[in-house]
Amino acid sequence: MPLTHRNADPRQASSPHQVPASAGWARNAGGPHTRATDLPVDLSAGRKTGGPSADRVETRDAGRAELGRYSRREAFGLGALALAGGLMGQVQASSPHNLRWRTAVGLNGFESAARKYRKSFPLWEILDFAARQGFDGVELVQGWPMGNYPGAEQRERIAALRRLYAGYGLQVFSIQLGADGAFDPDEAKRRRWVEEMRDRAAFAKQVGCSCLGLWPHGGLRGQSVEQAIDRLAQSFHQVGQIAADLGLVAAFEIEPPFVFNTEEHLRRIHAQADHPALKLIYDPSHFDLMNGSTGRPHEMLARVGVQNIGYVHLTDTDGTLRDGGTSKHLSCGDGHAQIPESLRVLRGGGFRGWIMIDGWEVPDPYEACVKGKEMIDAAAR
After folding, report:
1. CA within 20 to 30 Å of 96's CA: 178, 216, 362, 380, which one?
2. Distances (CA, A) of 87 to 43, 125, 145, 315
């Protein structure tokens, strides 16, 4: 499941290293809580920059002046994260790493649960949990915890973000990106979107990603679905080339509320884009609805071909929409989607990539992650 705010500008991407002040305490690997440093921290480079009397913290690069001022409370929050990350070398995962697939948590599940159910999920807590459960990585999401993805030229900030996740033994494997501009009727706007994706892909490469996730939501804006597919496929072909040049895989997902919402649409977009670095995201909840809500999304997976899957958003479903939105996501085993069958088809088709636990609007994303990883690990044996 995708972008965090469906009515927001999908190009307002997130930077999870801009951490809310609520993350001012870090959990020690041995159990006690450790107070964050009382010195402000340079958010772009991870270094202490001043004493307790400093009222603000500035990055050293004046070229990033618009992003370079942070309150001391924000700095303390990041200090806690940095300290927690530094302690992760002492943590022993309670669950083993999967030897067949790379497993990840998605920040989208925590963002959506925090928003929909008014819960709080500090980033350090999520990363500590992911490391202890034996996950390999994280997919970032737009607009959460706060701020924008760094531009590709902001190398120090990107390095700090990568160090944050690496401190927990985790890889940022993908970033979620909106693709409404990819099928805009205005050619100039489509060109701007492609150039923005070029910058986003360069950021993704620097932060350690293997993949880019694309969501073509948005209205038709006066064009037919056929015209929109033609334009989307042209833009996606270009993004496929951008990804290939950087050694990345770009993958896209369509959903029931989108204007592109059928198996035919999915196949046509992929076929017309026609680039080996452009793949599909397999999400059983969406595939189930596109397959008639039969509880057999693996049938559609087999039809579109495992070789065409870039990565997986693993979730169960009951074949309905959640509160009039997109496909209802459930913890694996709580729905009718026969998740072991999907994993069997993926394994049989030779898939060896990333599987992210997609807890979109699941009330307890931690439980969703645990149940999902248990099924993945069982299928890999």
Report:
1. 362
2. 19, 13, 22, 31
Distance of CA 136 to the CA centre of its chain: 13
d(CA 184, CA 221): 7
* Residue-range domains of the chain with CATH: 21-87 (no CATH), 92-380 (3.20.20.150)
- Residues 281-313 as b/e (b if ≥16 CB within 10 A, e otherwise) read bbbbbbbbbbbebebbbbbbbeebebebbbbbb
Q: Which residues pair with 215 in a beta bridge?
A: 178
Query: CB of 70 within 8 A of CB of 43?
Result: yes
| pTM metric for this prediction | 0.80
Rg (CA), the chain: 20
What is the number of other CB atoms lying within 10 angstroms of the CB of residue 152? 17
Supply the DSSP symbol for 324: T
Longest CA–CA separation in the chain, Å: 63
DSSP letter at 325 equals S
H or E stretch covering 357: strand 354-357
Class of residue 17 by CB neighbours under 10 A (exposed 0-12, middle 13-18, buried 19+): buried
Burial pattern 158-185, b for ≥16 Cβ within 10 A else e, equals: bbbbbebbebbbbbbbbbbbbbbbbbbe
CB 284 within 8 A of CB 338: no
